[in-house]
Write a structure and sequence with these properties.
Number of domains: 1
Structural class: alpha+beta
Oligomer: single chain
Strand content: 5-15%
Strand order of the largest sheet: 1-2-6-3
GO biological process, one term: cobalamin metabolic process
Protein name: Cyanocobalamin reductase / alkylcobalamin dealkylase
Pfam family, one: MMACHC
EC number: 1.16.1.6, 2.5.1.151
Number of helices: 8
Number of strands: 6
Helix content: 25-40%
InterPro entries: MMACHC
């Protein structure tokens, strides 16, 4: 395995040059950081010092990537259009940045044959230092007892106005010199953590949990309208906006809405 100290800088720099204008953010990590906080059944099957990168979508992604993607008529509408958009741009960015190199791309919506996710998006974002993953265990003397409360990531600049889209793994590329940094603790008080988790678990549809910290940027009105619509209604909305071809017999929307814990949208 190559272990040049410049590996991370080269990979991160190339990806950011291509993906930042499209509204994405890139955060490198070692596979071992991710595996260290999860049971073996969820481990990534690579050596601990293998380089990986988490890809997030910032609020700008909707206007910078998604709407142009739809206007290009590249969307086939056979699954979630946002997922199609991400799956359109990321492989092209990887091929442009690393021609001929093996890079494994796992998307946040992908499942293994055993129905486990290909990767845990919020865990990956946390260990990469991208966004703090607030969970029930982060609240001292929590008021919920044994009631299950889903956790949620908070971005230091965007609060909850972002999404975790993919994990890139670079087999054979070492990142032994990469220093792990904790994600910024944007919600340090017990009271605010309680408020965050309660809003995310009980009224996530009203967007209020996203403003737990003052964001530098929020979703645009058009983006909010899209994500506020039921998944079954989103294709019709895009057609009303003139951004999608008339429905073909095989077209369908994603059958289920995002739920607490998924951090979709």
């Amino acid at each position: 395995m190559a272990e040049s100290g410049s590996n991370v800088e080269i990979v991160e720099g190339r990806l950011r040059e291509v993906l930042t204008p499209l509204g994405f953010e890139v955060y490198p990590l070692q596979v071992g950081w991710y595996n260290a906080v999860l049971p073996p059944s969820l481990h990534l099957g690579h050596p601990s010092d293998t380089l990986a990168a988490v890809v997030l979508s910032a609020p700008a992604m909707f206007e910078s990537s998604f709407l142009p993607f739809l206007r290009s008529q590249a969307c086939g509408s056979v699954r979630d259009p946002i997922d199609q958009c991400v799956a359109h741009y990321l492989p092209r960015a990887v091929a442009q940045c690393f021609p001929g190199q093996q890079v494994e791309i796992s998307y946040d919506y992908e499942m293994l044959p055993n129905r486990k996710p290909k990767f845990l998006a919020q865990t990956a974002a946390h260990v990469a230092g991208a966004a703090y993953y607030y969970q029930q265990r982060d609240v001292a003397d929590n008021p919920w007892g044994n009631k299950k409360m889903f956790g949620v990531c908070v971005h230091p600049r965007f609060g909850g106005w972002f999404a975790i889209r993919a994990l890139l793994v670079f087999p054979g590329v070492g990142a032994a010199g990469l220093e792990q940094r904790d994600p910024p603790d944007c919600v340090p008080t017990r009271e605010d953590r309680i408020r965050l988790l309660e809003r995310f678990n009980t009224c996530w549809q009203d967007w209020s949990y996203r403003d737990v910290v003052a964001p530098a940027e929020r979703y645009s009105e058009k983006q909010r309208a899209y994500f506020s619509a039921r998944p079954a209604d989103r294709l019709a909305l895009l057609r009303d906006w003139g951004l999608l071809r008339s429905e073909d017999p095989g077209q369908r929307a994603s059958p289920t809405p995002a739920e607490p814990g998924s951090h979709k949208g």
